[in-house]
Design goal:
Elements: H1 13-19, H2 23-37, E1 45-46, E2 53-57, E3 60-64, H3 75-90, E4 98-105, E5 109-116, E6 121-122, H4 123-126, H5 132-149, H6 161-167, H7 176-187, E7 195-197, E8 206-208, E9 214-216, E10 223-225, H8 229-238, H9 243-250
Helix pairs in contact: 5-9
């Protein structure tokens, strides 16, 4: 390739943030990827912003992973997504169908996934329209899904859940007493009990179609960790502390 398809300069996380949602900047690159994969290209549409460049086109969604020049290594995310989708299929969880995967060396090395576009709306879009029975059913389905994949597996992306938590800047302003208690608790966990977790079960990553079918998307944050790792995001974000969702997920709450 004599000239670059992707022209924008990425030097750090800030410059990636300026471009990762740009349909104009990504169109030549993604159009070339689709030609290489033998797929019909259509004009890009923006998806909800995340970490990587994610765009919709017709029946497909393409995810272009952030290049190393941003200062962030997205290879573990790429590996996690591939491993997790295969694992979800094995345990019967509905996930987007993987159409193509690969990488392209352009101005930067871009890894990509092309997936089938999931029909339906995310849980956040319909949450306020749901009745008690629907919430109970969704909570139960999520419980079955999480319990289904929460089994021991290889450390497929090399992420150290304990070390990452201890190094997190979110705890910088906590008191030494809290930090020491946290460290003692985390280092006391038995790693042989760690299981697969999605790691980001937010309302945006749970798709519900008109029949009530639940599909889980975006496995880039999946890792092996204590099973309780999964619950915080579900309780706070997906369920937003709603008693009906919680009862469906955990069972009768006294």
């Amino acid at each position: 390739m004599t000239s670059h398809l992707f022209q924008f300069g990425i030097h750090d996380w800030s410059t990636w943030g300026e471009v990762y949602c740009s349909k104009e900047e990504f169109t030549p690159l993604i159009q070339y990827i689709f030609e290489c994969e033998g797929l019909k290209f259509q004009p890009l549409e923006n998806c909800k912003p995340g970490t990587n460049g994610v765009f919709r086109m017709g029946e497909y969604v393409v995810k272009v992973f952030v290049p190393l020049e941003s200062g962030y290594d997205s290879l573990p995310d790429y590996r996690a997504e591939l491993f997790a989708m295969e694992r979800a299929n094995e345990v019967g969880v509905s996930v987007p169908k993987l159409i193509a995967k690969g990488q392209i060396q352009d101005k930067y090395l871009f890894r990509y996934l092309i997936m089938e576009c999931v029909k339906g709306e995310n849980l956040g879009e319909i949450k306020d329209t749901l009745g008690r029975e629907q919430k109970l059913e969704i909570g139960k389905k999520l419980s079955d899904i999480v319990r289904g994949w929460a089994t021991p597996c290889e450390n497929f992306n090399g992420v150290d859940a304990i070390g990452r938590t201890l190094r997190s800047k979110r705890w910088e302003e906590a008191s030494d007493e809290i930090k020491n208690a946290q460290k003692k608790f985390l280092e006391g966990l038995k790693k042989e009990s760690f299981v697969f977790v999605h790691g980001d079960l937010t309302e945006d990553n749970l798709m519900v179609d008109q029949s009530g079918k639940l599909t889980v998307i975006d496995f880039a944050d999946s890792l092996i960790a204590p099973g309780i790792y999964e619950d915080m995001t579900l309780i706070c974000d997906a369920f937003h502390f709603d008693r009906d969702f919680l009862e469906g997920y955990y069972g009768k709450i006294s």
